[in-house]
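Why do we bother with holo predictions? Because pocket geometry can differ from the apo form. Keep that in mind while you read this record for adenosine-5-diphosphoribose.
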Amino acid sequence: MLNKITVVGAGNVGATTAQRLAEKELARQVVLVDVIEGVPQGKGLDLWESAPIEGYDTRLIGTNEYGPSEGSDIVVITAGIARKPGMSRDDLLNTNAGIVKQVAEHVKNSSPNAIVIVVSNPLDVMSWVAMKMTGFPRERVLGMAGVLDTGRYRSFLAEALDVSVRDIQAMVLGGHGDTMVPLLSYTSVSGIPVTQLLDQAKLDAIISRTRSGGAEIVKYLKTGSAYYAPSAAVVQMCEAIAFDQKRVLPCAAWLQGEYGQSGVFLGVPCKLGRAGLEKIFEVSLTDDERAALAKSADAVREPMSAVQL
Ligand code: APR
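The structure, written out:
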């Protein structure tokens, strides 16, 4: 169990993340930080009052200050605005860049040894903002997107095949946007290549639904974006770190030549343990997958150049 995890942003993703962290007892303390007066305090208290009923000893508090978050082992950044129908993740760019910049400066001062997991969108660009503003090494700044995108992909495959989600192995790489790259060549059902079980037209439809999985939820909710699956995904990453599990999960990492890409955050297979990003696995890709990953990297670089830090 870790000592302290801070979740910045006590909105839908942040509060659900805090709940899941506590229910799994990943840390002795979970601190919710938000700029709105009363909201983190109220949600923190409500979550703490659930502890005797749920039976967890994680102490939850909410605050508008960074003092109580000092010395956190992990800081999850969910602060920012969420999408409304018709908006792309890139539409959030400048507002969220300003917010993540400010949050990262606080994190650098209050939790200099923390591992930072970024959730705010556009994810890959915000991860870069967080890394630049904290000055933390790439091992301690990760973006949560691939676990979520892969979760969506696996859920659609399980549904189409009418099999357990547990038996679907898959990886979605690339940026967290329309250019994400579901790796068909590494998608299997208990080791059976998925191409033996579903025809190409069905697979294409699932891949396309995965790419617009976030937009599908936004369209239903109308006033915000997804949070149950995003919080589950970020908590899986926290769990891998807290218990030094050495899980291999698709995460946004700062690339330094891997997959022929540099100077960009992109979803790649990462080994996560107590040190954070412990290794990036470079797997062989088909020509089409490699080209799709390069296109995805360019789609992340473009908004990066519009951000002034
Ligand atoms: N510091 C702390 N919290 C902040 C700050 C800040 N500087 N600025 C905004 N917030 C808080 C808001 O007050 C709000 O409570 O961030 C919270 C965001 O919550 P929601 O609006 O409910 O958004 P949510 O659905 O949680 O999404 C948050 O995650 O998935 C991404 O695209 C999504 O960028 C969005 C982020």
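The mean pLDDT is 96.
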